[in-house]
Amino acid sequence: MQGVPTPEDFMARHQERLAWMPWLYAGLKPELRRPLRAWQAAIQARLVALECITIGDDCFLAPDAQLFAEPRRPIVIGNAVTIASGSFLHGPVTIGDNVSINARVSMDGGGAGIVIGAGCRIATGVMIYAFNHGMAPGVSISTQKTTSRGIVLGCDVWIGAGAGITDGVRIGDGAVVGMGSVVTRDVEAGAIVGGSPARVIGTRGR
After folding, report:
1. Residues with Cβ < 8 Å from 205, sequence gap 6 or more?
2. What HEC string does the chain produce?
3. Nearest one of 58, 69, 67 to 26, comparing CA atoms
4. Has 14 been annotated as catalytic?
5. Which of 204, 197, 205 is CA-nearest to residue 158?
6. What is the pLDDT of residues 34-91, one digit of tens each?
7. What is the pLDDT of residues 93-104, one digit of tens each?
8. Among the options 17, 133, 185, 199, which is catalytic?
9. Which of 51, 147, 134 is nearest to 90 (CA)?
10. What is the pTM of this model?
11. Taking a C-beta distance cutoff of 8 angstroms, is the pair 97, 80 a contact?
């Protein structure tokens, strides 16, 4: 028979819950965040010490989120950003204020980088890759040169769960990308797109 859970057990479980659902952290009152500040400060300080990362104020980073940023591939995180468990980010990536990156998001800035505007919501399992392999005939994929044009998400963009965004895409302010969509071309501001490849299926009327 297992023993009665201790307060430490409950705190550890609370931290696990927040790591997978960081929007809960964003909604906590200041007095409820206070016991978590040292935990978050340690996680963020370690990343800043080991990687070329800048982290703004009032952010939440899951302890198992994997952020990698070399000197020429930095990650810049704005204020009030949340990054959930299982996420993988490789710079160059620039994240605006009040951005939510949910569980198992994967993004690589390639050479040209990824820019995410303020207020974006990126749902579980989204894949954003700012590079591509060549596909010339007679040459193996493993030896093809890669190219990178970069990816830009405007402000207030919502990327649905499991969506993919390919290199070179620009998504305008207020656009919505449906769950499971593959975005291979630019999306206008306020457009709602879905499918593979994604096409316009509606508008937010901005």
Report:
1. 190
2. CCCCCCHHHHHHHHHHHHHHCCHHHHCCCHHHHHHHHHHHHHHHHHHHHHCCEEECCCCEECCCCEEECCCCCCEEECCCCEECCCCEEECCEEECCCCEECCCCEEECCCCCEEECCCCEECCCCEEECCEECCCCCCCHHHCCEECCCEEECCCCEECCCCEECCCCEECCCCEECCCCEECCCECCCEEEECCCCEEEEECCC
3. 58
4. no
5. 204
6. 889 999 999 999 999 999 999 999 999 999 999 999 999 999 999 999 999 999 999 9
7. 999 999 999 999
8. 133
9. 51
10. 0.94
11. yes
Classify residue 154 as exposed, middle or buried by CB count within 10 Å of its CB (0-12, 13-18, 19+). buried
Between CA 100 and CA 120 the distance in angstroms is 6
Here the tokens at position 98 are 């009040």
Please check whether residue 102 is in contact with residue 84, taking contact to mean a CB–CB distance below 8 angstroms: yes
Amino acid at 29: K
